[in-house]
Design a protein that fits this description.
Elements lengths: L3 E3 L9 E2 L9 H7 L5 H8 L5 E11 L3 H7 L7 E10 L2 E11 L16 H5 L6 E2 L3 E3 L6 E3 L6 E11 L2 E10 H7 L5
Antiparallel strand pairs: 1-8, 2-7, 3-4, 4-5, 5-10, 6-9, 7-9, 9-10
The structure holds ligand ISJ.
Protein name: Probable chorismate pyruvate-lyase
EC number: 4.1.3.40
InterPro entries: Chorismate--pyruvate_lyase (IPR007440), Chorismate_lyase_/UTRA_dom_sf (IPR028978)
């Protein structure tokens, strides 16, 4: 079983509009990073019958990172609802994701009861869902990271979803395990 640890990164992540990073990305990666439909559904399709699983790593109240608070337009050091997962295909974590929502905006959406069901499967069923612009980074996540030698983050992306008065920042980092399994180039 793969274990995960918090990885301390010293550099502040540089987020850019996803189109700004397109020249640095292969066409195959662009399709993944710039897609705006459900990533869960895409991973399930790409897994070609291998079991897809959401591994819940952490969920509950906590203080968002500086850039997360900025992205949500909330005050620094305000508690938020945090959820960290690994999206696994077969035995491998392909994506690690961290979602953040202001606690004050949680009003019976029952997000905390999702457990190991995919947040995306729930989110994309909401008829009023609006997705904000995608931003991307080549930096590594500063949260749960698989403790397996040689696993690297290839691309990260984030966007804010709006639904029923709730703003939800979703950050997803695509791992080298996924690149290896799908034979994608490193970048
Ligand atoms: C936003 C989506 O949901 C995915 C599922 C997540 C979860 O269960 O916590 C987190 C991020 C996403 O990669 C999606 O499917 O597009």
């Amino acid at each position: 079983m793969v274990t995960f640890s918090f990885r301390q990164a010293y550099a502040f992540p540089v987020w850019q509009p996803v189109a700004a990073l397109r020249p640095a990305m292969s066409a195959a990666w662009w399709k993944w990073v710039a897609s705006t439909d459900s990533l869960t559904a895409r991973l399930q399709a790409a897994g070609a019958g291998q079991p897809f699983r959401v591994r819940l790593l952490r969920q509950g109240a906590g203080v968002p990172l500086h850039d997360e608070a900025q992205a949500l337009g909330i005050e620094l050091r305000r508690y938020a609802w945090l959820r960290e997962v690994a999206l696994c295909v077969g035995d491998n974590p392909w994506v690690v994701a961290r979602s953040v929502a202001p606690l004050t905006q949680l009003k019976g959406q029952r997000l905390e009861q999702l457990g190991e069901r995919s947040l995306g499967s729930w989110l994309f069923r909401q008829p009023d869902l609006v997705r904000g612009p995608l931003e991307a980074t080549s930096g590594a996540p500063r949260f749960a990271f698989p403790q397996v030698a040689g696993v690297k983050s290839r691309w990260g992306r984030r966007s804010v979803f709006q639904h029923g008065g709730l703003s939800l920042l979703v950050q997803e980092y695509f791992l080298s395990t996924m690149a290896d399994d799908l034979r994608l180039s490193s970048r």
